[in-house]
Amino acid sequence: MRKIVLATIGLLGDLHPFIAIGLALKARGFAVVLAVPADHVAKVELAGLTGVAIVGGFDTLAETLGLPPDQAARRIMADQTYLMDRILMPWLAGSTTALDEAMDGAVALVASLFVFAAPIVAERRGVPLVNVLLQPMATFSAYSPPSTPDFRMMAHVPTGPIGRAWNRAVYRVMRGVLRHRHARPVNAVRAAHGLPPSTQALLLETPAATALTLCCYSPRIAPPQPDLPATTYVTGCAVFDSDTGAPEMLDPALDAFLADGPAPLVFTLGSFATFAPGDFYTTAAAAARALGLRAVLLTGTDAHAVSTEQVHVCRYAPHSLLFPRACAIIHHGGAGSTGQALRAGKPQLVVPHMGDQHDNGRRIERMGVGRTLSSRRFTTARARAAVAAILTPDMRSEAARIGAEVSRENGADAAAARIATLLIARG
Question: H or E segment at 4?
Fold first, then answer.
């Protein structure tokens, strides 16, 4: 069996698509190893794949930063430079060594954009690198640039020739800044593994070892753009749904709540912002009451709210089972939650907290299936008005129409097919 290593870091929104792709590759006869943070290894194993740790888990990270988990989460969400300088770059040397060891006997490396060790290891091993992008903004297209606070200077869609030229110029400046800031530590790690210096910028340039780029999100939210490499494919969402890694059903208490009344609002902050939710869940429950609607709160812990007759609180639920039974979904805008809400065919209110979440929210707005509301403005009155605005017949109808299309996508299988074709072509 040919061995393929998949590598990702982050929390569930980063992990689940890779498990889905790994299972699809396993079904095609590949021996799959998933290289992940230490606290995800057990879940990977329960899902039926081989897991190895290439970085520590979130608790280890918080301890290294000298902060409790909630403060670490707030710091990361508030400053993306902090994420790069204090987390991703310090991990580079150790994760490169660990990933290189996991690659023994492998014929390909499939990696997330944020596994900075992957291009180094793929080049050292002489194997093809497959980039997996989970966020539409990560293509960094001049035609459809990111809509986030860090990219506020871009000319946004629709962009004409002048706007696209401006965007390309901005990207060039950003690449120069990234090279200046990170070239020295990156090249030190490259040298330790016998490789020459690189002039490529992290994040904003496709690594030289890349043979294929797979955009694992729906083409409905971000169709392919003319300036992407010819070896870039939009596969659709790669979906995996489980808390433990093993197959799961809805908790009986949640299932009973859903069956006992009208479809509720579902509120979730994914798996990261739940470390520092602030008043989100309290406000969510109050907004649902003000609208006279039932609600399900996915809190990540059991500490943020208490269930009542109209509000059911639980730590986690498989989105593919819960979201189709909602009347609307209010979430942080993470790639996984956004894709699952699209598949469910429900209107969305995106309350972004960081990074690509802002961009995903803007794309949802442009599709006509939802709205955005700043996390700083998420008060009871504003949340009530924003939720009411997405529950219109037109928006429900459009969300259902697009959901019917997106639900037919199988991004994991499409990604596995592209990877298998690449390896067949290379012999």
Answer: strand 3-7
